[in-house]
Amino acid sequence: FLGNKARAVSPYSATSAIKLGRPYSKLYPLLHLQQIQFVEDKQEFSRFPTKAGRRSLSRSISQSSTDSYSSAASYTDSSDDETSPRDKTQLNSKGTSDFCVKNIKQAEFGRREIEIAEQDMSALISLRKRAQGEKPLAGAKIVGCTHITAQTAVLIETLVALGAQCRWTACNIYSTQNEVAAALSEIGVAVFAWKGESEDDFWWCIDKCVNMEGWQPNMILDDGGDLTHWVYKKYPNVFKKIRGIVEESVTGVHRLYQLSKAGKLCVPAMNVNDSVTKQKFDNLYCCRESILDGLKRTTDVMFGGKQVVVCGYGEVGKGCTAALKAMGSIVYVTEIDPICALQIGFRLGFFSGLLGNKNVVTRDQLDRMKNGSIVCNMGHSNTEIDVASLRTPELTWERVRSQVDHVIWPDGKRVILLAEGRLLNLSCSTVPTFVLSITATTQALALIELYNAPEGRYKQDVYLLPKKMDEYVASLHLPTFDAHLTELSDEQAKYLGLNKNGPFKPNYYRYNHPSKIPLNDTQISDLCTIYLQWIPTATAYMFSLVQSS
Q: Where is this region: Disordered (predicted)?
């Protein structure tokens, strides 16, 4: 593995081996670490590093928990400077400069990230292969505003393969993977985004995507509604010519319904957020896994015994609550919806009622929090936490890691604020690729549907994804689990009044998850009995392994 140019040197002396104790001496070869020393490397590291070296060392220490080859912190070459990408002139290998990213030289690394994501997005790749010959998006000019990650890149490249021209920007100033943005720019997709944008950069990037001489978008793919709002306000003539909008977030969908109610929505829009495949998979399973990832990377917190308040018990809230409770946290949930509140009572045993989409966590509540409390947001925008109220002269902000701030009160109390109140998982960690494949496939099909729909099928309103399309997205992902659907007989289909090929459920049907079904006392007792019987056997087996070693 190391090749001929390297040799392994043990960092342990014979004395170190003795200190391990005689019973463990035979385990020493398995425990010792190897230090790699390259023979041809003539560089020697002094005891006291240079000024540049100290900066590099400081960065590696302060950001070690968040920097990785992921969206937690984009790969950054040591030669990178702090110059804004807006002040740089960069060219890709084709000689074009219609993009603005952190460093186009990271494209090769970003390409590897995208290839890794493709391996777990087989359904989207399958859709690409099936429809590539027909080019259902030929002539489509799509402007997109989403998180720019390796998974989103697979979607964008699928849209391009289906005939679309794409220009893209980020919906979150912290979630962009710089290397992925570079890889997309390298193949000719006009990307305007980088990790750590300012508010001014954010809107500048959106405008650069829309305002291109000789190019006018006719489709919008949005996450949060900022792009739609910008086009509607600043380019009304362009907005009127849009053939369809696809929106995937709660925030963006609310904005669309407000426009529709006011009679100002002059184009059809598809509400992907409330599709079954988005709600029941992305919102639930994705958040259930990624909230722990984001909190661990940024704070190294131990969840056992912590008292956690989750505001809201929708699908995202259910996923977050399940994950935190499973880690041993004491979870409290606030709600405004009596049905969701009743679900909390059945599953957790306690709840209180409070929720809104703005200032859910107020300054007064932040003032009363304990020293060391962690505050974070799993919603799209940064309005749930009243961050603006914390930017006052009496409070001190201290950046301790990437996307981690200590807000310090005059009495010395510190509250840990993550991602400045923005979306935790994509700002501070990664999300499961397979779940994003489901959402990305849904978005692609929604774009195809709106772009190819005959005139009159969709009016100037907001529509839910057709049930048949939801079922098709799910069917594309079944081969991953080696699952095969049972087919109804003609007699059975007639008895149920269904088409053999679906849709199989009415639009009002509410899908459920086995994980939400509470165990009764008998089931809990049986599980405890099995567990207690298993402990002595397992413990004896582990000790026998140690002794045999």
A: 56-94
Residues 355 and 260: their CA atoms lie apart, in Å, by: 25
| Cβ-based neighbour number of residue 419 at 10 Å | 24
In this predicted structure, what is the pLDDT of residue 339?
Answer: 76
Percent of the chain with pLDDT over 90: 40
Higher model confidence: residue 83 or residue 26? 83
Please state whether beta strands 219-222 and 190-192 pair in parallel, antiparallel, or not at all (unpaired). unpaired
Q: Which long-range contacts (CB under 8 A, 24 or more apart) does 305-314 make?
A: 305/329, 305/330, 306/330, 307/332, 308/332, 309/333, 309/334, 310/334, 311/354, 311/355, 311/360, 311/361, 311/384, 312/340, 312/355, 312/360, 313/337, 313/340, 313/341, 313/343, 313/344, 313/351, 314/283, 314/340
* CA dihedral of residues 319, 320, 322, 323 (deg, nearest 10): 110
Of 118, 192, 116, which is closest to residue 155 (Cα–Cα)? Answer: 118
Q: Does residue 137 sit in helix, strand or coil? A: coil
Which residue blocks in 187-281 are alpha helix, DSSP H?
199-210, 226-234, 236-240, 250-261, 276-277
Closest CA relative to residue 403, chosen from 175, 79, 149: 175
Question: Could you tell me which of 173, 174, 176 has the C-alpha nearest to residue 149?
Answer: 176
**Nearest of 475, 464, 447, 379 to residue 155 by alpha carbon:** 447
Query: Does residue 291 come out as left (phi exceeding 0), alpha (psi in the -120 to 50 range) or beta?
Result: alpha
178/196 Cα distance (integer angstroms): 10
Q: Is 277 helix (H, G, I), strand (E, B) or coil?
A: helix
The two three-digit tokens of residue 490, written as one number = 């003609």
> Among residues 272, 165, 191, 294, which one has the least CA distance to residue 224?
272
118-133, pLDDT tens digit by residue? 999 988 999 899 888 8
Q: Residue 62: is it exposed, middle or buried by C-beta count within 10 angstroms (0-12/13-18/19+)?
A: middle
The closest alpha carbon to 180, from 63, 75, 83, belongs to 75
CB 421 within 8 A of CB 193: no
Please give the span between the terminal C-alpha atoms of the chain, in angstroms, as a whole number. Answer: 26
- In tens, the pLDDT along 347-376 reads 554 333 334 357 788 888 899 888 988 888
CA–CA separation, 343 and 482 (whole Å):
33
Distances (CA, A) of 330 to 261, 304, 324, 498, 511: 41, 8, 8, 45, 28
Tokens representing 3 are: 């090749």
Residue 460's closest CA among 262, 314, 295? Answer: 262
Q: What is the average pLDDT across 374-386? A: 79
Instruction: Count CB neighbours of 164 within 10 A.
Output: 25
Higher pLDDT, 489 or 39: 489
* Cα dihedral 323/340/508/458 (nearest 10): -80
